[in-house]
Write a structure and sequence with these properties.
Blueprint: E1 2-7, H1 12-15, H2 20-27, E2 28-29, E3 37-43, E4 49-54, E5 60-61, E6 77-83, E7 88-92, E8 95-99, E9 104-107, E10 114-117, E11 126-132, E12 140-142, E13 148-152, E14 161-167, E15 178-184, E16 190-191, E17 195-197, E18 201-208, E19 216-222, E20 225-231, E21 235-239, E22 246-249, E23 254-261, E24 270-272
Parallel strand pairs: 1-3
Antiparallel strand pairs: 2-21, 3-4, 4-11, 5-10, 6-9, 6-11, 7-8, 7-10, 9-12, 13-14, 14-15, 15-23, 16-22, 17-24, 18-21, 18-23, 19-20, 19-22
Length: about 280
């Protein structure tokens, strides 16, 4: 079963007036994983889709949704999958790909059948992102052996982290989709600090590996008009092109960043110094 919901885009002047409840309603994705279901959120920000596939007692197939007006989901789209749970299987037009935790799979435009399976006692959690595509590129698995790994931050500023570029144009041919995974080291809590915006790409964040009882405060908004959303484990948030995207947790955690837009240059961003934020 595939379930979907729709989200509009928002003007930054409007977002300044939002209450906590309204901010969470429009940008937070509180539930991604439902037994034997694929849950999707279609956003007007670059027509991006954020979702989760959760096969528990049976396999689940990625079905088209009304918003796409397509015969099958990937008729005009590409797909990125990162497993954040136990070992799982993804079947792509009959070809079997095994994904362990923190491994990724890119699936190109034109693939007609994507099936998610739980092969044994372990429970996979498949986090998925999708963007419109103009060209068909081959399906490709990415793990830490062929990822681009970068060490960032410092212990003294509590933002030491390992960034794993998984589905990026230096590793995988894509139309516009980019995804990666960042792991904060123990004792570190700040992500994407110093912060930045990138007006030619939107972004979505998915927080996971957050211990029970802990929280992450996700910061968004224009650099001089910031807002925050407190988030729990395995929740996602939509980040508009005009918004910063940064966070601070009450313990260390991991997160997946996904992007789409008109530029695949990872370094295309406008930095904001910490003391410039308001």
């Amino acid at each position: 079963m595939t379930k979907s919901e729709f989200r509009y885009a928002h003007h930054p002047e409007d977002v300044k007036t939002y209450t906590t409840e309204k901010l969470r309603e429009h940008f937070l994705i509180p539930t991604l994983f439902e037994d034997d279901t694929i849950r999707l959120v279609y956003t007007m920000y670059d027509r991006y889709i954020v979702g989760g596939a959760f096969p528990v007692t049976k396999a689940v197939a990625l079905e088209t949704i009304d918003e796409l007006k397509a015969d099958y989901f990937l008729e005009r789209r590409e797909l990125g999958i990162i497993n954040v749970g136990g070992k799982g299987i993804v079947k792509v037009d009959g070809t079997v790909y095994e994904l362990s935790k923190k491994e990724a799979l890119y699936v190109g435009k034109g693939v007609k059948e994507v099936i998610f399976e739980r092969p044994g006692d372990e429970q996979p959690y498949f986090y998925i992102n999708s963007a419109p595509a103009h060209h068909a590129y081959p399906t490709q698995k990415v793990n830490k052996d062929n990822a681009e790994v970068i060490e960032l931050g410092e212990q003294r500023t509590a933002n030491r982290r390992t960034l794993n570029k998984l589905i990026v144009n230096s590793i995988v041919k894509t139309c516009q989709l980019q995804m990666g995974l960042t792991e904060l080291h123990e004792g570190n809590v700040w992500n994407t600090m110093p912060s930045h915006t990138h007006t030619r790409r939107m972004e979505a964040y998915f927080y996971f590996d957050l211990a029970d009882g802990q929280t992450v405060s996700h910061f968004m908004g224009q650099p001089q008009e910031t807002r925050h959303i407190f988030m729990q484990n395995q929740q996602a948030v939509i980040s508009p092109e005009w918004s910063i995207h940064s966070g601070c947790g009450t313990s260390n955690y991991s997160f997946i960043w996904g992007m789409a837009g008109e530029n695949l240059d990872y370094g295309d961003m406008d930095g904001v110094a910490p003391n410039e934020l308001k």
